[in-house]
């Protein structure tokens, strides 16, 4: 499997209230030239992993930014 795809770390963060660990990785499929964004969410021993295309990632990111920008100033945000 290692010769079929390449993983590149993009970001990692921990949610302060739930303690979930979120990792973002770029997944490059060597034979096919497609790149996806892998989202890995760890909650205790449970993992949720899914790969999304650039259009879906852009829409999701825009929706999250709209929501974040509507929240009161000074709200906690992980860096």
What does this 3D model show about the protein?
By secondary structure, the chain is an alpha+beta fold. The chain has one domain. Helices cover 20% and strands 44% of the residues. The protein is built from one helix and four strands, in the order E-E-E-E-H. It has one helix at 54-69; strands at 5-14, 21-29, 35-43, 46-52. Strands 1-2-3-4 form a four-stranded antiparallel β-sheet. A hairpin with a 5-residue loop joins strand 2 (21-29) and strand 3. The longest helix has 16 residues, at 54-69. The protein is flat and about 45 Å long. The N and C termini lie far apart (33 Å). The model has no long low-confidence stretch (mean pLDDT 90).
- Approximately what portion of the residues adopt beta-strand conformation? 35-45%
* SSE pattern: EEEEH
Low-confidence stretches: none
Strand order of the biggest β-sheet: 1-2-3-4
Radius of gyration: 15 Å
Please, how many domains? 1
Number of helices: 1
Measured between the Cα atoms of the first and last residue, the distance is 33 Å
| Class of secondary structure makeup | alpha+beta
Oligomer: single chain
Instruction: Please summarize the sheet with the most strands.
Output: 4 strands, antiparallel
What is the average per-residue confidence, as pLDDT, rounded to a whole number?
90
